[in-house]
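Open question from group meeting: does this chain pack into something compact, or does most of it stay loose? Before anyone orders reagents, we agreed to write out a predicted structure and look at it together. Recording both the input and the output here so the notebook holds the full record.
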Amino acid sequence: MRMTHDALSPDPAVATRVIPCLDVSNGRVVKGVNFENLREMGDPVELAREYYEQGADELTFLDVGASVEQRETMYDVVRQTAEQVFIPLTVGGGVRSVDDVSRLQAVGADKVGVNSAALARPGLLDEIADRYGAQCLVLSLDIKRSPRTPSGFVVTTHGGRRETDRDALEWAREAIERGAGELLVNSIDADGTKDGFDLELIGLVRELATVPVIASGGAGDVSHFAPAVRAGADAVLAATVFHSGQIRIDDAKRAMREEGVLVR
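Structure tokens returned:
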């Protein structure tokens, strides 16, 4: 077991990152509401270039199918993006072994996101952190409210459609001890609703997290980002509002700046 980084809240001297998320299936970006009714949103490499030019601090790619064929497609997408976009790339979906991490790094991924495979075999987190370091490892958490767990939040899989028996906050704490260097906290309840981030969930994760917290799910307006940071997020991630052109990344940063949030 290992513990990383001991800041228990966002460091006001560290700029908040804005991260567009591209959910990729069969080489195309898709998006839905509450992870259902997926529709095509565009070419991932073109969108990545556009976000880079708008001032994105990082990019996250999630392979929402992660079949063998789609995994090969994702390698191509990551390689093409890394050749022309010079910000950190996180890739998740279908990462089941340290060899998967090695292959993704070889095509340009800076970090990997792990979700279902770590739930099935928590030791995978230790293995990745031991070989590549905590800075490479992002635990992706798809969380929804549930009366079945002590915290009232449960970890889900399959895009929120299947509940596990894991309490979300207990799993987040264990994952950090095993070497996760960041937590990507996605609220299934808020995902795609455009009603704002789940501030209660962000705050609860922040209280226990000794690593950076990325807030995901619910962004619908430039005014939604600063409250997520005040609740405890070190980074804010969004998808639909960026893909549709409803919000530009530079506009989101401007709005956060006006609220006193330090951004790049």
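Observations to bring back to the group:
The radius of gyration is 17 Å.
DSSP finds ten helices and twelve strands in the chain.
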